[in-house]
Amino acid sequence: MGHGGDVIAELTADHREVAEMFEQFADAMPGTPDRKRMIDAITIELVRHSVAEEQHLYPAVREHLEGGPALADKELADHARVEQLLKDLEQRQPDDQDFDRLAVKLHTEVTAHVDDEENHLFPKLRDGVHSFVLESLGEKVREAKKTAPTRPHPASPSTPPANKLLAPGLGLVDRARDYLTGRGE
Q1: What is the mean pLDDT of residues 42-47?
Q2: pTM above threshold 0.70
Q3: How far apart are CA 101 and CA 131, in angstroms?
Q4: DSSP class of residue 118?
Q5: Which of 80, 76, 85, 87 has its CA nearest to residue 151?
Q6: Alpha helices, DSSP H only, in the chain?
Q7: Are 49 and 79 in contact (CB under 8 A)?
Q8: 87 to each of 7, 72, 94, 116, 142, how far by Cα in Å?
């Protein structure tokens, strides 16, 4: 859940972890419970990651980067598309006709978002934001992931202050549901 380092290192490590999970998903036999377990694991990581970015990274982008509000809004739109796909997949079984199509679409969206962040947003952050701020953001992101929801909530707010107020409660409920159902184990 936490990798250490500044916010760029932390989020890049998350990206690699999710990419590896997508590889494991691709290796699992279509229509099997293993594919559903892998999508659940991907969902847990993506939701935690997204919530932490929405709480801390994108407000910093708005504040510190030229054109920051437009950059943050674009990233939030990416998150909204991914979160809706996660919600759609959550409601599917691995042998449903559109399960694999949705999973491929999710992988495509996530890959494009990661590419955009790593090749455009992160270099701007590295050049335009003091290393102390990046280190502080890394710690805040790690802390946010500990209490973040583990399930998609497309209707919940994605910007402060509302997301910072609601996310820990949603996270608590999600983790209780995960515990009771064995999801994510």
Answers
A1: 98
A2: yes
A3: 41
A4: I
A5: 87
A6: 7-27, 33-52, 58-64, 68-90, 99-116, 122-128, 131-147, 162-181
A7: no
A8: 27, 22, 14, 23, 24
